[in-house]
Amino acid sequence: MYILRIIDPFFPGGGAQKYVLQLSEASKKYGITTILITNIKHQNSDYSKKLIDNNIEVIYVDFSYNPLKIHTQVKEIKNKLKSKKIFFIASHLRKADILGYVLSRKLKIKQVITLHGHISSLNFNNGFSYKEKLLSFVHRYIINSSFGVIANSKYTLDINNKLYSVSNKNSIVIYNGIEKLANLNTFKKEDSFIITQIGIGIGVKNSDILIEYFKQLNLKYPNLELRLVGNAGSERNFQELKTICKEHNNIKLIEHTDDIGSLISTSNAVVVFATQEGFGRTIIESFQMNTSVIAWNEGAPTELISHQKDGFLIKNYQEFEQAIKTIKEDKQMISELTNKAQKKYKDNFSLNIFEENIFGQYKKWRLI
């Protein structure tokens, strides 16, 4: 049996790539053998090498939006696949959905759409170009004509219901699984208090609001340190944040790390300030690493966090300050809170749970 996954990942190491890598690691157990990647620039990436290390055959197609080329590309794909038995296509982003739709019709197979947060953020009635509006209309049609829809949170599914009028009878939520992180350094410093944001940016991730909150907080509590981890998306955003960091000795910018586990485990608090978060991978990673997490009280974090039981949900500076004060001063409560959070990770968000949920659903739908 073969599962063909069509993907078009945005960023190296991003959520969509990790999602597919997680499924590929289950290849021997569930029979995944072939992945089709619709973005040829990833051909020599570390991501592709990891897939090959997992005994996955990778087929690349340089897919174009041009409708006149689709027929040729489908023919090309069929030739590359030769006699493989293909019965299932899953896709992540709109470009891949279009190719997936065409292939599912041409090859007479079932397509399941997997919705992640970055799809949800598109609102085609709000200042997008004609091309964006057209693609959004196409995406709505594809979602509703596909065999099934799997969203990574209730929030993501609700947003897509509003944007695309999702009426697909096979619409369900399966939360992402998070792999066990390595942590080379597990000690929190006694003489400082470190706040960390992983995945940064002005606007969507609200790093600018976090910085303002941090400055206010620092007037009251000395020895605070803020770590901003990531590359801020756009160059303009990134340069702005770099300038801010140069002006403040206790705000550090970390562009890239291969050791997220240590960054989280040495933090006193990890913050998620995005107001339209589609899942919140960092929240679950913090649960796993016994580190307190503070998230904006909107979007998917409200599904993942039970306020003051396994994390903190905030909506203004006063609530942010109170959460930091509790983490700094109430050691007993924080010990109980982080233990509950770690148990929540093990019971709901481990890779084993994710595999059982997603492949169990495929079996229910008789895809495998």
Explained architecture:
- With 368 residues, this protein is of the alpha/beta class.
- The chain has helices at residues 15-24, 27-30, 46-53, 67-81, 94-106, 117-120, 130-145, 154-164, 207-220, 235-247, 260-265, 281-288, 301-304, 317-329, 331-349, 351-364, and strands spanning 4-7, 34-37, 57-60, 88-91, 110-115, 148-151, 171-173, 193-198, 224-229, 251-254, 269-272, 292-296, 312-314.
- The strands form two sheets. The protein has a seven-stranded parallel beta sheet with strand order 3-2-1-4-5-6-7, with helices on both faces. Strands 10-9-8-11-12-13 form a six-stranded parallel beta sheet, sandwiched between helices.
Task: Give the key terms.
single chain, 368 residues, alpha/beta, 7-stranded parallel sheet
In short:
The protein is of the alpha/beta class and 368 residues long.
Mean pLDDT: 79
Shape: globular
Biggest beta sheet summary: 7 strands, parallel
User: Which class do the helix and strand fractions yield?
Assistant: alpha/beta
Q: Count of helical segments?
A: 16
Poorly predicted runs are: 8-13, 118-126
- Adjacency order of strands in the biggest sheet: 3-2-1-4-5-6-7
- Output the helix-strand order: EHHEHEHEHEHHEHEEHEHEHEHEHEHHH
Distance between the termini: 8 Å
Please give the share of residues in helix.
40-55%
Strand content: 15-25%
User: From the alpha-carbon coordinates, what is the Rg to the nearest angstrom?
Assistant: 22 Å
Number of strands: 13
